[in-house]
Amino acid sequence: MEDTDIAKNEIQIALPPWQLTGSGYILLYRFTKAFVAEHGFLVDFQKEKFVSGWGAVMLVDYQTSPVGPYHELLFIPGLFSFNKKKVFSISKIYVSTQNSVINGIENWGIPKELADFRWSKERSSEHIDIRKNDVPFFQADFIRKNIGFPVSTTVLPLTIVQASNRGLMETKPKSSGMAYLTSLRNVKVKSEFFPDLSKVKPLLAIRVENFKMEFPLPTLV
What we know:
Elements: H1 3-10, E1 18-31, H2 33-39, H3 44-47, E2 50-64, E3 70-76, E4 79-82, E5 85-88, E6 92-95, H4 98-108, E7 112-114, E8 116-122, E9 125-132, E10 135-152, E11 160-164, E12 167-171, E13 174-189, E14 204-215, E15 219-220
Parallel strand pairs: 6-7
Antiparallel strand pairs: 1-2, 1-14, 2-3, 2-4, 3-6, 4-5, 8-9, 9-10, 10-13, 11-12, 12-15, 13-14
């Protein structure tokens, strides 16, 4: 029996909807098709449907969730076309607990992998170091500015489609919080683990604080 099967048998699935709180960073990009083809970690169902457009990287510190606190790093290459609708899809994602890994895969088809997250804070700056099997593969510094504004999926709706053993599933998370403009510096990425962001610059970088999020039941596409 594989390790993931053993872990799955030992972990209780927390069924959606999930209510979560926390803080984190959102980096918005407009990736080229060439960059995504080379660095995007697309799987077959995504390769066929990729359109391009706005993409994002998110680093999140979930302080509360149905499976406890955990950290997360994810990559969204851009827009995909499913059933004539433009939606997003996650092609690479790491989290800090096995509970989150198994629940993400089972509930929403999100292909989570386990990694070690190290967050170091100093006043308005924060250093993030993420490792897989003791190999550092993502490092970056974030410096928060004092310009803040509210953000919400009411204004910027988010729909993601992921593949599961039940078929393609569509989820529409809801969230709201206070955002602050942020500077991103000293990015170092090992491209075999995550898209090499040192090759591109974000169009916008924000820190979202004290957010509330709901991850609802998915629907089959």
